Amino acid sequence: MLKKRLIFTLLFDNGNFMLSRNFRLQNVGDINWLIKNYDFSKISYSIDELIVLDVTRSERNIEEFSQVLSQLTNGCFVPIAAGGGINDIESARRLLRAGADKIILNSVLFERKEFINELASEFGKQCVVASIDVKKSQNSEYKIYSQNGIKSHEQTAKELIAKICNYSVGEIYLNSMDRDGTGQGLNLELLDLLPKEFNKPVILAGGAGNSSHLLEAFQDSRVDAVSTANLFNFVGNGLRDARKALVSSGIVLPMWDPEMLTKHLAIGGKSL
Fold it and tell me: Taking the domains of the chain in order of start, what are their residue ranges?
């Protein structure tokens, strides 16, 4: 049986980390607050991947974001995906040099298909993650939004996802804007928007508030990974306890050996 992945997502905005509810941002604290409250060298044992997104609404500062990413990745051994406004190879390269293993794309998916191919050609398509933000309209039809949830697209979500799935991307990050930050559970209806016989890994996000929500999503065979961005629902031992609950419920997650990893890092293994 293929292993599932539990992912923690961090939202960065102009120097601070944020909570998001239906894409409305609330300031939580800067990098010093985050490091004080979340020891990623320890949290790494509770998650399988870390995602860091620059959701800055104003002009982004790739240098600042890269520096923050470097601080976060110190001693964090799990794979890291990062993105937010990436639309050129050099910006992607800077994030990879700062410790990222994958690059997340959103708005550029709808604007420059040739850049996606260029990025995949340069770093491999397994390095490229397509982030898709979906919201239900008043007529109950799902629509896709880009540019931090501001711009809607004319084609239906199903049509656009089918198109994106044929791009040179390694996996899909499917996010519910309606459930974002609500803690009311993930929207499994979004999975019905995927093409039949879909063969790329799917990360489902938006709405996870406790381990039972994670479990419900993992029990769907179409879900390869679940991500939560709620800094408070899983604070303290929250992520560790959620992982234990999932494993106890029969979800197959990677098992980390702390002693082996400590030795690996001590002899010069890659600290992501």
Answer: 5-266
Q: What's 5-266's CATH class? A: alpha beta
pTM above 0.70, yes or no: yes
- Is 54 part of the annotated catalytic residue set? no
**Cβ–Cβ contacts within 10 Å for residue 272, how many?**
19
DSSP state string for 187-231 = -GGGGGGSPTT--S-EEEES---SHHHHHHHHTSTT-SEEEE--T
Question: What is the identity of the amino acid at 120?
Answer: A
E-only strand ranges, 62-219: 80-83, 102-105, 128-136, 142-146, 151-152, 171-176, 202-205
Residues 164, 183: Cα–Cα separation, whole Å: 28
What is the chain's mean pLDDT, rounded?
89
* Block residue for tokens 């002009």: 59
DSSP 79: -
What local confidence, expressed as pLDDT, does residue 271 receive? 40
CA distance 123 to 95: 12
Neighbour-count burial of 196, counting CB atoms closer than 10 A to its CB (0-12 exposed, 13-18 middle, 19+ buried): exposed
Tokens in use for 243?
A: 């992982």
pLDDT for residue 237 is more than 70: yes
Say which of 133, 178, 224, 257 is annotated catalytic.
Answer: 133
Burial 19-53 (b: 16+ CB within 10 A, else e): bbeebebeebeebeebeeebebeebbbbbbbbbbb
